[in-house]
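Can't paste images in this forum, so I'm doing it all in text. The chain is below; anyone willing to post the predicted structure tokens underneath?
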Amino acid sequence: MLVMEPDSPHLRGCLVVFEGIDGTGKSTQIQLLADYLRSQGKEVVTDYEPTRGEWGMKVRNAAISGERLSLEEEINCLLQDRREHVREFIEPALQRGAWVLLDRYYLSMMAYQGASGVNVEDIRQMNEEFAIIPDVAFWLDIPVEMAMERMNARGNGKDAFENEPFLQACADIYSGMEMPWFFRIEADGEIEETQARVRAVIRQELNI
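Text version of the structure:
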């Protein structure tokens, strides 16, 4: 993908991604980090994947119904959804200097579709042909049993991805990811403790 460079490299924003199985507290940690960054004078935008666009909703609706799409169709929809997201939301925000905080990105595809049988490195390569590599990505790590308890407490019903053996397989893939910008965060304690760990990495890696 052709990416236009900003007039000054100092104007470009940062892409920060939060990953993990459901129930790890990603949305809470994103909001707390967004509040902190805004207090430092940064423009912050937040979003999630799959998006609410046409392609993302096909995946979401199928999962909610309890019947996933075929793996081939699922991958195609996720890639199409991400292409649109990068082109229409992520890249423009970064170009104007905003910090983009995402709840899931292509690392989720590596974990979830990888746990479904697709080669994890193939998924990574498919995405990195066009997707912007994060400045920092956090894996919020909690025991799968705890995540299941939190999901059950919500009372919203489970989707097709939410069963313990599958989520454990996803967690195992996350645990094996090794990128210099990927950080495991213990997230089974107090919310404030988790946020302190997140901010420590942000200060160390991104100087804020």
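Helices lie at 26-39, 54-64, 71-95, 106-115, 120-128, 144-154, 164-176, 191-206. The first strand starts at residue 15 and ends at 19.
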